[in-house]
Amino acid sequence: MRYLVLVSHGTLAQGVHSVLKMLAGENPRILSASLEDGMSAEQFVERFRETVSVVGADDEVLLLGDIVGGSPLTNAANVLQERGLLAHAAVLGGVNLPMAMTAAMQLDGADLADVANTLVSEARDGVRILEFAPAGDEDEEDL
Fold first, then answer.
1. pLDDT at res. 70
2. Which is more confident, 109 or 129?
3. 55-65, pLDDT tens digit by residue?
4. 3-class SS at 37?
5. Fold of the CATH domain 2-111
6. What is the value of pTM for the model shown?
7. DSSP H helical segments within 25-126, as ranges?
8. Nearest of 28, 34, 22, 30 to residue 5 by alpha carbon
9. Which own/partner contact pairs does 82-90 have at CB distance under 8 Å and 24+ positions apart?
């Protein structure tokens, strides 16, 4: 079985998780934990341990964090390592909603490494500068 686990500073992970529930429905294999304001790293680690307690030794984990090198992502990876799960995990930073949505839709999909590569492409393709015609321009329909 494969799990999608979201981690972040503040409540970003829970927010993304909430939107995934809204768009894709409830899925017990999507988990989230956040390092909230005023919480110590140790408190986050305990919260994360509890969150991933349902993940078994033979399961795969797709861990998405907000910031590469950030405390939630590095501490989460350390917990996965402690539990012997890191060898069956893909860890990515810089999560955004399209990336998380693709991950949620591919929980039963392809090889974990292929899914991770798809997510990186999804994240890159999802960021664009939008250009709008000035107000009153006759070509506004082209947007």
1. 95
2. 129
3. 999 999 999 99
4. coil
5. Rossmann fold (3.40.50)
6. 0.90
7. 41-51, 71-82, 97-105, 112-125
8. 30
9. 83/52, 83/55, 83/57, 84/57, 85/52, 85/55, 85/57, 85/59, 85/61, 88/58, 88/59, 88/60, 88/61, 88/112, 89/60, 89/61, 89/62, 89/63, 90/60, 90/61, 90/62, 90/63, 90/115, 90/116
Instruction: Identify the three-state secondary structure at position 100.
Output: helix
- How many whole angstroms separate alpha carbon 16 and alpha carbon 32? 9
User: Which tokens hold the place of 8?
Assistant: 């972040």
The 10s digit of each residue's pLDDT in 29-61 is 999 999 999 999 999 999 999 999 999 999 999
Amino acid residing at 14: Q
Nearest to 5 by CA among 32, 44, 35: 32
